[in-house]
């Protein structure tokens, strides 16, 4: 039976995240593994994968349906429809109150709304995946920064200890010089 791969992360998990390796989420475990190996964590952003025909069509419909081009062209179409049926045609095909136009608009809305919602749902999924990736990158950066702080603290402590040792050597040397001077009678 092979050992739990998270068990090797236990010291790092306690040190950096304050919890046992068993309590780590998948993202936290992945981040700690990359931090220990000093490897790159960044992956391709969500949404770069190949889209199906339906997903691509939904994105195009949502893109066009939410544009000024669509709004302006639709307003022009409505004005032409109303103008043709009110003033230009002696036998209008859709007399006021434009029942056929209402039917067409209802069918358009009934089809367009779910397609736009499909596109928005896909975008929400991509946003959640990208947010999870951002979290992992930020967590790894935070762990790396804490590690750098520890290294700097260790270096500072070593430097201070070296300075203290040198100062102690100088004090000892001065003490010996003063004693020697006293022994030679220079202290009168």
Automatic annotation (TrEMBL):
Membrane-spanning residues where?
61-84, 96-118
Keywords, A to Z?
A: Membrane, Transmembrane, Transmembrane helix
Origin superkingdom: Bacteria
A Pfam family hit: DUF1003
Q: State what protein this is by name.
A: Putative membrane protein
Provenance organism: Hansschlegelia beijingensis
According to the entry, what is the taxonomic lineage of the organism? Bacteria, Pseudomonadati, Pseudomonadota, Alphaproteobacteria, Hyphomicrobiales
